[in-house]
Amino acid sequence: MSNLPSHARVVIIGGGAVGASSIYHLAKAGWTDCVLLEKNELTAGSTWHAAGNVPTFSSSWSIMNMQRYSASLYRDLGVQVDYPMNYHVTGSLRLGHTKERLQEFKRVVGMGRYQGMELDILAPDEMRSRYPFLETHELTGALYDPYDGDIDPAQLTQALAKGARDMGAKIIRFCPVTGARREKDEWVIETPQGEIRCEYVVNAAGYYAREVGRMFGRDVPMMVMSHQYVLFDEIPELAAWSKEAGHKLPLLRDVDSSYYLRQEKYGMNLGPYEKNCRAHWTTTDDPMPEDFSFQLFPDDLERLEWYLNDAVERVPILGTAGLSRVINGPIPYAPDGNPLIGPMPGVPNAFEACVFTFGICQAGGAGKVLAEWVTEGQTEWDMWSCDPRRYTDYTDQDYCIAKGMQIYGNEYAMHFPKHYWPAGRNRKLSQIHDRIAALGAQFKPYNGWERAMWYAKPGDDTSEEATQTWGREGPWAKRIEEECLAVRDAAGILDLPGFSRFRLKGEGAREWLSGLITGRVPKPGRIGLAYFADSKGRILTEMSVMAIEEDFFFLITAATAQWHDFEWLRKHRPVDAAFTLDDVTANFSCQILTGPKSRAILAEVCDADLAKGWLTHQTAQIAGRYCQLVRVSFAGELGWEIHTKIDDTPAIFDAVWEAGQKHGLRPFGMEALDSLRIEKGYRAWKGDLSTDYTVLQGGLERFVDWSKPDFKGKAALEREKQQGVTRRFVTLTVEAEACDAPYMSTLWSGGEVVGETTSGNWGYRTGRSIALGMLRADLAVPGREVEVEIFGDRFKAVVQPDQPLWDPSNERLKA
């Protein structure tokens, strides 16, 4: 007789560490009517062969939060659920070979300190006190993480499962999911043991997540890599040292050589991430098996030869040990190496917690995040780095394979600000891509769309190697400056394909939109910024609202926000609404024409009313093609956005380009735009604007209409206003040297951490290093001096008045 219940509030598909953590955290949140279905035994997928490392290190703020939470949870989990746990907190050394690697380490130390973790940097002569068998040749330093360690993955999973069962949740093994269908407002999950109905479903199926996703009409962006690690026999010298010391060696990661080395009892475990890597289950002659539970791939040691030799040179005692076993198992990869945690795009009441490359160290935090998504509809930390909606329709299987292999082969790579990964490119091209490429454009993808970052001239170094720096200077610096000054003194044109664009039209559209945004809906013929808050008053997103008629709007938002923002709008649209809401992103493109000569250029190619003021829009014709001229400029100069249908873009660009030559028109890229916008204090999505901050903290009260009877997040914002805002958005000028402040650089005052930067750049019009950030409210006073920590060094920074640094009264913008 089947023990499958007929109904549950939540069904989780997949019984690895992440699935077990998800049901554990749901039960902790009081949602005990949950069922986990596993096709085989718990841990049968990647969990059973995982090495079990538990680092806290990450250069991503949100993933560091998640991994820090996991490590903290695991320390006490065994006692909390009364289950034996082998969790060794050994600490780790992360070795650096270059100045740039040490800069990365110093930045992470600052982030960790802000999150309450005391990480440290060791000089080469300090390393052997932590790791006596280490050879320090060619090393510049190391990051020491006292919280790092390793855990038994099977015990972790069983402990989480026991904790969930003890709270009343159900876990059913040997019960594969064979299908899913939607009936009324419920999911019906099909299994050989019968059907189970549920309100919510979670895909936690690991490397089978793509197959499970298809049951819901979802093509999960992922692929599967073959990852090997090698176990070595006991090393007498290591055994003697470990017995005398009473503990294991710290885990060693040689990130520039791309492997980890861990003490395993009195032997060692070597796990490389090799560049000559291999993907699996990607072709018709290598199909994914129906069940790969507790199985491995054949050994492939030839791929590891260089890494084995390098590890022996670094830790010579490894060369005295015999090889005892090779583990070669499948691990899933998303195109950026981060997992998928959050709403399943386009599928109601369905969530994903899958494609974990580092599932053991992230499982604890992932369960917390997933449970928050399901039970509250929002998460404590902004988790855009893992949100499944960060990918849209360009992530076909070829793309996922190319990106997954690139990420695996560069698992420990530094993510330099001017470096753009080469794999999986040219998915979406502007209609004028060839034209701007011929002008020297250097491209980077945004939601699959290739956009010009800067324009090189003949002789400029455009190699990938030239971008391996955290510094401001490089082949691009002079060109970005020239582009910024052209916008300041004459005019610039920026091709901007891929703006996310939604058409809202019909009776009741204005009233509905007013209930969602914090401010006022613009009148017909006007455009304005609108901020959407969640129920806690936090910044969910920013859109430009272009009012065509009383109940007809275009909502324009960031390229990368396409699925995130549209799904949020669609979720809040009443079922019986008379108005329509459509994603028309694929139909339109945009160019920015900006600078003091932009009016003169447009006057030569169209008969529009160019005296119309700031924040207006009008229909016009250029080269016989219709466009919408929108009187705004993210660059902070006189200018227009020229919105066109996709096929009309080339003719309009050609006409504007030709007319602009005698006026000094030149192309500019996204790097220049970022410099220009930061001088105006304009916020960027998922940096300055995120759910880590409320609308009031973000300095956006001027976009709040308190007189409206209600809007999403109003009650929370009213409470915050009454109680007082604890931190505030500020613009800082920084006495920086070679590097500007990266995202999440720590702010200091009087020896205390008092805030963080949300973005930083050099302002070429103002000649200053500028940072935007969040500062403790009592310090957010113009003229106040603080310090900003940039790659481990602190630099003086001064709080600026609440106005743009460039053209503070907006005279140029409104000219």
Task: Pick out its properties.
GCVT_N, Gyrase A, domain 2, 8-stranded mixed β-sheet, 4 domains, 815 residues, Dimethylglycine dehydrogenase, TrmE/GcvT-like, GcvT_C, alpha+beta, Alpha-Beta Plaits, FAD/NAD(P)-binding domain, 38 strands, 26% helix
The main pleated sheet reads as: 9 strands, mixed
Q: Give the helix tally.
A: 19
Radius of gyration: 27 Å
Determine the CATH superfamily of the largest domain.
Answer: FAD/NAD(P)-binding domain
Report the helical percentage: 25-40%
Mean pLDDT: 97
Task: Report on the architecture of this protein.
Keywords: Oxidoreductase. InterPro entries: FAD-dep_OxRdtase, FAD/NAD-bd_sf, FAO_M, GcvT/YgfZ/DmdA, GcvT/YgfZ_C, GcvT_C, GCVT_N, TrmE/GcvT-like. This protein has 815 residues and is an alpha+beta fold. The chain has 4 domains: 366 residues, 3-Layer(bba) Sandwich (FAD/NAD(P)-binding domain); 85 residues, Aminomethyltransferase beta-barrel domains (Alpha-Beta Plaits, 2-Layer Sandwich), CATH 3.30.70; 76 residues, Probable tRNA modification gtpase trme, domain 1 (Gyrase A, domain 2, 2-Layer Sandwich), CATH 3.30.1360.120; 113 residues, Aminomethyltransferase beta-barrel domains (Elongation Factor Tu (Ef-tu), domain 3, Beta Barrel), CATH 2.40.30. The chain has 19 helices and 38 strands. The strands form 7 sheets. Strands 4, 5, 6, 12, 13, 14, 15, 16 and 17 form a 9-stranded mixed beta sheet that branches. Strands 1, 2, 8, 9, 10, 11, 18 and 19 form an 8-stranded mixed beta sheet that branches. The chain has a 6-stranded mixed beta sheet with strand order 29-30-31-28-22-32, with helices on both faces. A hairpin with a 4-residue loop joins β35 and β36. α16 packs across α17. The longest helix is centred in the first third of the chain and has 21 residues. The chain is globular and about 85 Å long. The chain starts with 6 loop residues before the first strand and ends in a 16-residue tail after the last strand. The mean pLDDT is 97.
